[in-house]
Fold this sequence. Notes:
By secondary structure, this protein is of the alpha/beta class. The protein has one domain (25-322): Aldolase class I (TIM Barrel). The protein contains eleven helices and twelve strands. It has helices at residues 15-20, 58-70, 98-109, 140-157, 171-181, 202-208, 228-240, 254-263, 274-285, 291-305, 315-322, and strands at residues 31-38, 44-46, 54-57, 75-80, 114-119, 133-134, 137-138, 161-164, 190-195, 244-248, 268-272, 309-312. Strands 1, 2, 3, 4, 5, 8, 9, 10, 11 and 12 form a ten-stranded mixed beta sheet that branches. Strands 6-7 form a two-stranded antiparallel ribbon. Helix 2 crosses helix 3 (98-109) and helix 3 packs parallel to helix 4. The longest helix is centred in the middle third of the chain and has 18 residues, at 140-157. 48% of the residues are buried. Ligand PBG binds at residues 118, 120, 122, 130, 165-166, 201, 204-205, 273-274. Residues 118, 120, 122, 130, 165-166, 201, 204-205, 273-274 line the site of ligand PBG.
Amino acid sequence: MPFPEQRLRRLRRTESLRALVRETRVEPHDLIYPLFCVSGHGIRDEVASMPGISRFSADLLAAEAKEVHALGIAGVILFGIPDRKDPEGSGAWDPDGVVQVAIRAIKDAVPDLVVIADLCLCEYTDHGHCGVLDRGDVDNDATLPLLARAGISQARAGADIVAPSDMMDGRVGSLRRGLDAEGFESTPILSYAAKYASAFYGPFRDAAESTPSEGDRRGYQMDPANAREALREIAADIEEGADLVMVKPALPYLDVIAQARELFAEPVFAYQVSGEFSMLRAAIERGWLDEERAVSESLTAIRRAGADRIVSYFALEFARRYHG
Length: 324
Ligand code: PBG
């Protein structure tokens, strides 16, 4: 039925009609909030390149986590910034390490909030790479047992889900075997399966003090030009035992999210990364974008592409506004 009988504007006439036919919604429970943990007491230290986002000591994290839970946000994902770093990243498996302490504090304060532990060595190595170095190159196979050790220690501290983000080959299988051998066969793995070597991680590296001192991550993170390769990465991680998979960044990779959703039955998460946050935040601060509309449109687009849940630095303010 062509125009003039067919008029698509009919269903856009009022907000109630638009709501009636709206295909995609974003609610607080679709979101996961990232938290940066530091040692000490009473510390709340705003990240210069991420206005509104802070690094917290464990005591203040617990309070933040309470609000996150009360607002109905699905969970938190934790990143640790240790006081000391070394070539192996041994702070990552320290039972009293910064993330382990934070996990215990949050689980004590809000037992029902899902706590996901980001698993990587880059915040803990003095050279800033995601694995151990062998003559300047990240040694894949030598890194695997260290990652498994760190993941086990996060599970032991009480993490509900462990989330490897290092992009070593074989790390999901090795982590699964390690967790199972230590009695954590019920701890799920959320794999950052399709993680691109992205310029949009800039502000995060500021927050986590994890910029590589030499070289970059293109030898292990994915080339932004490749989409089919992402599907191979996801298939490989699922084969190795990933329970959930993630695409990262989100908005520049909606095609990858959509294809992943189409091809796999596992939950597909997307990570709206620090650079995506800071770009919007900067334009909002200048008055160039409307905050509420820009944040909601970007999250809606990521959900529309097929992401089941979104890790987002906007989660808290979105949820606050959602509840009025
Ligand atoms: C750790 C890790 C990074 C991010 C999440 N986990 C940094 C990186 O790979 O450089 C980026 C998150 C963000 O930019 O918000 N490997």
